[in-house]
Amino acid sequence: MGDMASLDDLCHIAREKIERGADSCEILYWLKQLDVSIIDAIKIVRKVFAIPLGEAKEVVSSHSAWSSTAEGAETLHEIFIEAIDSFRNN
User: Fold this and answer.
1) C-alpha to C-alpha distances, 1 to 22, 47, 62, 77, nearest whole angstrom
2) Most trustworthy range by pLDDT among 13-17, 58-62, 77-81, 84-88
3) Which of 11, 17, 61, 77 suits a disulfide with 22, CB 3.0-4.6 Å?
C-alpha cells in the first residue's frame, strides 16, 4: 500500500464513514479510489463488517468497482490450475 494509511487506519476510517451513513457500496468505491488492492479490500471488508472471509471475497469481487480486477484474477487462477494439471500429467 506504500504511502497509504495502514489497514487498521483504513478500517477505522471506513467505520467512521459507516457511522455517518455510508453503505458497503460507498465503502468499496472509496477503497477502489484509494487504489487499495483487492486483497486488502477483502481484509478491510471482512474486518469492518465482521463477516467470514468467503463472504467478504464475494462482496468485493462481485462489486462493479472490482469486477474487472476479480475477472483478471479468476483468469490467472484458471491458467495456473491448467499449468499445474499439465505438469502433473507429464
Assistant:
1) 23, 17, 22, 23
2) 13-17
3) 17
Model pLDDT for residues 57-83, shown as the tens digit of each residue: 889 988 888 766 656 666 655 676 777
Structure confidence at residue 86 (pLDDT)? 77
CA-only gyration radius of the chain, Å: 16
Distance CA 83, CA 27 (A): 36
C-alpha cell at 90: 507429464
Question: CB of 42 within 8 A of CB of 76?
Answer: no
- Whole-model pTM? 0.70
Contacts of 21 (CB under 8 A, 6+ apart): none
Per-domain boundaries in the chain: 7-89
* Position 54, amino acid: G
